[in-house]
Amino acid sequence: MNFKYIILGLSLSTMLSMSSCKDFLDENPRTDVGEGDYYTTQAQAQENVNTLYRLGAPTFYGNANGAYQGPFASIPVMLTGYFENSYEGQEQINQYSRLLTRQQNTRIVSNRVNEIWRTAFQAINIANSAIKNIPNIAMPDDAKARLTGEAKFFRAFNYFFMVKMFGGLPLSTDQYASLDQNFFLPRSAPEEVYKVIEADLIAAVETLPDGVFNNSGRRVNKNVAAIALANVYLQQNKFAEAVPYIDIVLQSGHTLTPNTDLEENSAFNKLRTSDLLDETIYAMEFDAVINPGGSWPTYGFTAAANAIFDKYTIFERVYGPTNRFLNVYEDDDLRIKPNQYYHWSYTNPQNGRTWNGGTVAGVWAFVEEDALLNTGRSTKDRNIYRYAEALLIAAEVKARATGVAAAAGHLAEVRARASTTGETVAEITAQLQGLSVDQFVQEVWKERLRELPLEFKMWDDCLRTGMFPNISATVKGQVTFQTLVGAANGSGAIFKATDLVYPISMDELQRNPELTQNEGYQ
């Protein structure tokens, strides 16, 4: 869909930075037009809600932040030590995350955190404005319900990202529309933030239309809200609560992309090249004109690729797997085969020059050949939720809620697609049925490591389970789990309790005297 950019809300930080100038500016700032002057027509409401698709949390997963820094959601994964940024000497938040030294470098880390904090709360304020004002606009009831449901989804989605990253947050469900309002909100406990998230997503599920994402104008719909809510419940270990919502998704018409062959026409190559698959439940959309995807195609290589392409000038492995992480795959797993998720060499068909990663893997899933060879413009949508993740959520929550018998088939579907030996869903299901619940759940955790590493979900799993995956450096496919605090990450750094959250933006702490810093940070 084509979005117009009309951003009427302001983030708390932006509003506060203006407050010292209030006496000097007699006229109201332009951003005060939200209530009485702007929200008068359906078109205006539509434009404001459209803004939320490309602001805050969706961009944290989808936006390539530059040639040297991947999406914001990739940064917490660095805490595991299993992924690294080859330019971390400049992008130091990656280095300090990987080495677990953020506490001694709070100001440097905060420089990046500021942008995350600012844009998320800007999106939350815009959503608050939409939720408050849209019911009062003369328009069809179904349009009111849809736009309000979308705004509630985005408010929840932004709060969900932030509560995982920072813990307790200033919690506001009202629009900041005047400098006379009290901006100085204290941090609410994570449990209170989750209550708002759950209520918003329940409302979104109840009011948004059904449909497969790519057949529904690529707008947020009932199934997007349902998988997000199941994810929210999973993050809190509310397994039984998650079951009915993940079942909505499983019955929605979304499906796993099948393999046509195990090479160029594998499911994983289709996911890499196509935006029209029924596996996509929610994605951030890109195109060549309105919203190109930036540096995504360059993230698939090391810097040596500078010599083989001419459409991009900088290549960096900003989110690259370590060889120890790649040991999470057994040899017969399709995802570890060359040119599936990862690759080690590429020959430019136009000039014959070859990039060789040697023993260092590039990320094949990020590679867009048309952009690299012809256009210099990334257009591939970036998946945030896929049906494969829905199956893995279903497997875990159903095993915990009702037992392995109801869950084994969901895990088997994901495993069978990645098999190179022809194992069927039925055969894998039968193998899994003999496991205890705890054994089965650990098999789900392993499969999440193998299936979802490029969608930035790994640290979320560490937080919610309180466990760290110890991937063997010598035995392929061998993973054990140990208590997170006290474990050594993939780079040998030892997790402390204070490593579980990022520091609150130091700029926000200066603006808002009611905020407190997370323990252990400056």
Automatic annotation (TrEMBL):
<feature type="domain" description="RagB/SusD">
    <location>
        <begin position="342"/>
        <end position="521"/>
    </location>
</feature>
<protein>
    <submittedName>
        <fullName>RagB/SusD family nutrient uptake outer membrane protein</fullName>
    </submittedName>
</protein>
<dbReference type="InterPro" id="IPR012944">
    <property type="entry name" value="SusD_RagB_dom"/>
</dbReference>
<dbReference type="InterPro" id="IPR011990">
    <property type="entry name" value="TPR-like_helical_dom_sf"/>
</dbReference>
<dbReference type="Pfam" id="PF07980">
    <property type="entry name" value="SusD_RagB"/>
</dbReference>
<dbReference type="Pfam" id="PF14322">
    <property type="entry name" value="SusD-like_3"/>
</dbReference>
<comment type="similarity">
    <text>Belongs to the SusD family.</text>
</comment>
<feature type="domain" description="SusD-like N-terminal">
    <location>
        <begin position="23"/>
        <end position="234"/>
    </location>
</feature>
<keyword id="KW-0732">Signal</keyword>
<keyword id="KW-0472">Membrane</keyword>
<dbReference type="InterPro" id="IPR033985">
    <property type="entry name" value="SusD-like_N"/>
</dbReference>
<keyword id="KW-0998">Cell outer membrane</keyword>
